[in-house]
Amino acid sequence: MKKSIILALSAILVVSSATSCVKEFLDIKPRGSDVATKIEHYQGLLSSQNFMSYTSPTYFHMGEELCGDAKTLERIQSSEKDKGLFAFKFDRDPFQSEDACYEWEIPYARIYTCNFIIANVMNAETGTDAEKKEILAEARMHRAFYHYFASIMFSKHYDAATAATDLAVPIVTKAETEPTVKYERATVKTLFDWVINEMKESLPDLPDAWKNNSRCTKAAGNMMLGKVYWYMGDYQNALTHLRQAVTLTKNLKGSPVTFNSYRNNHSAWYNASKKYYTSYTTNGYNPESLLLKYIISTTMVSATSAAFHYVKTEYVQMYGEGDLRAYLLAPSTTDATMMRPVARTDHNFCGDLPDLYMMLAECEARVGSESDARSLMLEYRKARFDTDEHAAIPASVSSKEDLIKFIVNERTLEYIARGVSVIDMKRLWNDPLFASKKANFTHPIKGGDTYSVTSEDQLTWKIPIKVFKFHPEWQNN
Fold first, then answer.
1. Domain covering 4-56+66-259+349-468 in this structure, CATH number
2. pTM for the complete prediction?
3. Which of 419, 420, 429, 421 is nearest to 455 (CA)?
4. Where are the domains positioned within the chain?
5. Spatial CB neighbours of 244, under 8 Å, sequence gap ≥ 6
6. 183-204: pLDDT as tens digits
7. What are φ and ψ of residue 273, in 5° steps?
8. Contact of 69 with 308, CB cutoff 8 Å
């Protein structure tokens, strides 16, 4: 963090988005507009490293595919404030101290930047009106998406029957820094209605052509809006925008976006013993990133490759013959019977091509065309398996219901130990197709206790202490 501002909402230090391409514009000042004057300044904010990434997520520790060993048990018995361990135990209040809560702090820091851009870009001294409207649309799209992302762990899942009274996160539309500013929690319905409206109004002014993977095109905008509908369970509306996202991506002018073939790069990514990958394309350079917003987890494995968490044996075995994704797991240095994620796990939480294809495939299977869903999954799997024969969808996936379950399982395998199974479980908790999935949402520890999710409430965190103390009038989760 180079510079910081105090964001009243969370009363925390947040990064003020230094730009890499505009040397004279290093940060946003809390008050006044004497720094950002040119269109390049606003373009630099949207392209800055700070705007698109963060590290050490807490919800990664909650994945249904995870388990523990003696070292995990030792840490649980010796640590009193480790938020990752509290999350691993499915505690609804993992932030039991004033430690950073990046699932809250990072979205609202980015929202501050978006609000600054939205309030000022149309007054930039340079640039055409069309360029300014384009940047304004991008900032509104990002702002809406970050509100959605903040809601995932701190709001109940969208339920049409209760959304008008269930509490979500605050909607913040001004770049305010006064510590006396008070905010109210929106209802889930109000929040999602606002997010969808913001995204819909932004779409027409988004650029058609590719610039770089930090900039939001119409293709990426449709992906983001489709993702929100998909998460809500509105598969018909999601289908419309996700189909459009795939079509636009394939015709995106100047775009390098394509599937990253594990088959073609397999030999280059091996470690010396050829047992797992130690070098592979990360999100920052990944050609699969349509819009880059990524999380880097450096807390799943220590510097000595001693795992903090492991992948359950049954999930390791789900990688079939020729599945090159299995090489993203490595042998443990502390327990030879366990497999761990490779040392550094990155995840594009906004959406890359595998995410886009699997969301669309699920929607096609549910309300569209099962054959289209299979075609999408096959195109994706060919980039992950050593041969076309191994990439074929197993014959056991014979019904529509089998296909939907298969797609959800594929998401877990693609994003192993990246928290995707947590989001999927939250959105699918009341889906009768996945009733048995809830029983698998456990974290067994070898020689210790087994922690389980027994209520969907455990998938909604309480407001972090350092935020709640500035808003004691809020009703907590």
1. 1.25.40.390
2. 0.91
3. 429
4. 4-56+66-259+349-468
5. 219, 222, 226
6. 899 999 999 999 999 999 999 9
7. -90, 0
8. no
